[in-house]
Amino acid sequence: MTIADNSRLFSLNTSGDYEIAKNLRMTLNGAASRLWHRFLKEEDFVSYQFGTTLTFQF
Length: 58
Known about the structure:
Layout: E1 7-21, E2 24-37, E3 45-56
Antiparallel strand pairs: 1-2, 2-3
């Protein structure tokens, strides 16, 4: 076993783009991550991220 084998990481990212009106678009995005550390359980973590972007088109 090497030091490089001491953890596992799962990561998921997604986004969706919607046209609300002729000149207005909205993008929704999200992400989730989970890390499992083999030797140091205090290093384990779960992370979530959500966001949105509004775009005005001229």
